[in-house]
Structures are given as C-alpha cells and as structure tokens.
C-alpha cells in the first residue's frame, strides 16, 4: 500500500493519498492515436486562429513533446504553418491553420464537435481509480476528521457529547441556524 504523503501549505499539512498522474511526455504515453491528436489539434487551431506550440499544448492538457508528432504531421501536410515565434524551438513557434487545414477540419467537425482537453483513455482512468481506492484510508477516526476540518471555524465550539445531549432544535440554533418549527 502506498504511503500517505503530506503537502504543506499555510493552513498546515494536507494529506495526499495518491498524487495526480504526471502529464505524458510523448505520444505513446498518452494512449491516444495520432489521428485523434491530429483532429483535436486542428480543431483548436481552427477556433483560435493562431497559437504558439506551448499554448496549443496547454489547451490540449498535454506537454508539447506529446503533441509534437501531430503538429509535425499537420505542418508536413500543409494544414498548419509557422508564422513566427522565438527561435527557441517548436514549442515557441506561432502556428496558424491554412486553407487546406480549414477544409479538413470542416470534415472533422461534421463528425465530432468536441474541442477541449485530450481525453484520458478509459483503461488508464480505471487503473488510476483502482490505485487510489487501494491507497485511500478506509476508516474515519476522530483525528482524521479533526485534521480534515481544522481550517473551518464554528460559531460556538461544541463537543461531540454536547451535540449528542442536545435536541434537534437546540442543535440547529447552536450551529447558527434557525431551529425548525415543530410539525
């Protein structure tokens, strides 16, 4: 079972059961086909007009290295073109869709109008949820509940025993809410 780690913030230590998976660094790591990334990339370019490689990657929720094969294929097919940017590398270049690209994206949009983040393949999502389920604490203890809610402030401090002894009417009023009328 993975260990529970703690991320520190101003409010204190917040337990992290399982870290979020890191973004894929190459096309193969995404679990997606080149064709799907081509379609999503071209749709983003169609609606944005002009984007840097980094902006395009951010819109897809991936690193540029993961979408670079799609960008390269679209460039070689003359569906997008480089219109400027810094000479740092392809992620800094500004890309624009061409007329040939607009023709192709029309076909893509007739079939599927989704434009957004690149999807996570279902099998990978299920695997992550299984890992999370196995790593998550299975019991709620007083200490865990107190730690989880330590950042909240109540109007009147109350103990568990005082809540147990109170009636529904006084319980509501002690928590700052009006008491319910008796039926």
Structure notes:
The chain has 183 residues and is an alpha+beta fold. It folds into two domains: 99 residues, Arc Repressor Mutant, subunit A (Orthogonal Bundle); 31 residues, no CATH class. Helix content is 48%, strand content 13%. The chain is built from nine helices and five strands; from the N terminus they run ββααβααββααααα. Strands 3-5-4 form a three-stranded antiparallel sheet. It has a two-stranded antiparallel ribbon with strand order 1-2. Helix 2 packs across helix 4 and helix 2 packs across helix 5. The N terminus is likely disordered.
Largest sheet: 3 strands, antiparallel
**Can you give the helix content as a percent range?**
40-55%
Q: What order do the helices and strands follow?
A: EEHHEHHEEHHHHH
Total helix count? 9
Map the helices and strands.
Blueprint (H helix, E strand, L loop, with lengths): L4 E5 L2 E5 L10 H4 L3 H15 L1 E3 H8 L3 H13 L3 E6 L7 E5 L1 H13 L10 H14 L6 H7 L11 H6 L2 H7 L9
Antiparallel strand pairs: 1-2, 3-5, 4-5
Helix pairs in contact: 2-4, 2-5, 3-4
Task: Summarize, please.
Strand 1 (5-9) and strand 2 (12-16) form a beta hairpin.
Key descriptive features of the protein:
183 residues, alpha+beta, Arc Repressor Mutant, subunit A, 2 domains, two-stranded antiparallel sheet, elongated, disordered N terminus
């Amino acid at each position: 079972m993975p260990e529970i780690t703690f991320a520190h913030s101003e409010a204190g230590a917040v337990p992290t059961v399982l870290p979020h998976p890191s973004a894929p660094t190459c096309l193969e790591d995404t679990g997606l086909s080149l064709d799907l990334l081509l379609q999503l990339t071209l749709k983003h370019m169609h609606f944005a007009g002009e984007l840097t490689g980094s902006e395009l990657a951010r819109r897809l929720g991936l690193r540029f290295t993961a979408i670079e094969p799609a960008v390269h294929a679209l460039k070689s097919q003359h569906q997008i073109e480089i219109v400027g940017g810094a000479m740092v590398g392809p992620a800094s270049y500004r890309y624009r869709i061409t007329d040939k690209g607009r023709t192709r994206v029309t076909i893509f949009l007739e079939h599927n109008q989704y434009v957004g983040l690149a999807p996570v393949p279902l099998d990978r999502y299920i695997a992550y949820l299984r890992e999370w389920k196995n790593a998550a604490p299975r019991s709620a203890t007083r200490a865990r509940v107190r730690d989880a809610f330590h950042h909240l402030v109540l109007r009147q401090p109350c103990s568990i025993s005082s809540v147990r002894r109170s009636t529904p009417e006084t319980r509501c009023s002690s928590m700052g809410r009006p008491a319910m009328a008796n039926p």
